[in-house]
Structure formats: C-alpha cells, structure tokens
Amino acid sequence: MTVEITIQVPDELGLELRQLQDRLPEVLARGLREVQAEAQPSSLDEQAIIEILTSQPTLAQILALRPSPAFQQRVSALLERKKQGSLTQPEAIELERALLLEHLVRMAKARALQHQHRAA
Fold first, then answer.
1. Hey, how many other C-beta atoms are within 10 angstroms of the C-beta on 106?
2. Each residue of 28-82: pLDDT tens digit?
3. Three-state SS at 58
C-alpha cells in the first residue's frame, strides 16, 4: 500500500529534496524515526551512563558501569518481542537506543582496558 502526500516546503529544502527524490521515502522514514526518538523519554540508566561517560571518568568508573536489573529486563523483553515480530515502532526506537548505549559502553570499556594494560 502507498499513500500520496503533497506538502509545501521552503525553496532551499525543496532543492535539497529534489536531489534525493528517488530516496524520499527513506529520507522521510529516517527523519520520522529521529523525531520519534526525540519524543521518547530516556531511561534513568541511559541518563546515568551518559552522565558518567561525559564526566571524564576514571578507568575504574568506566569498567564498573553496569545496567540496572530493570534496564536489563526491559531490553530482554524488547528483544523477545522483536523476535516474535510484535515490536511496536516506539519499542523499536527504545531498543535501538538501548543497543546503541550498550555498544558505547562496550567501546568505552575496551578502551579503558587498553589504557589499563598500557599503564601496567
């Protein structure tokens, strides 16, 4: 199924979109996901981890980072719903953010371990 949409945009944006006219559905989908992600409240774990990572933490603080049991349970539930094919769009965004956060923490821990081994 497709839906036809007509919109008016400023000239400058129209010129940019014209260059991507064969990819407009993708552009709209990506933009929509970004806007929806902005509307999603971040979890306490996400806020706390970002706070730690941006505060010039020690190697020990980075290596001690752990998600809360509630956060782990939520991610597990979202992964299960994804496996079953019943994940909603807001849940998909939430899962994507959680997995990105997990990736960033793993990268920070790997870098911390490298620094720790060099210092030893």
1. 11
2. 888 877 776 666 555 667 888 888 889 999 999 999 988 888 889 999 999 999 9
3. coil
pLDDT at 114 over 90: yes
Contact assessment for residue 94 and residue 42, using Cβ atoms and an 8 Å cutoff: no
Indicate the DSSP class of residue 42. Answer: P
**Contact 91/78 with Cβ under 8 angstroms?**
yes
Sheet strands (E) in the chain = none
Taking only the tens place, the pLDDT of each residue in 74-104 is 999 999 999 999 999 888 988 998 999 999 9
d(CA 48, CA 58): 15
DSSP letter (8 states) at residue 56: -
61-97 residues labelled b (16+ CB within 10 A) or e (exposed): ebeebebeeebeebbeebeeeeeeeebeeebbbbbee
Structure tokens of 77? Answer: 């539930």
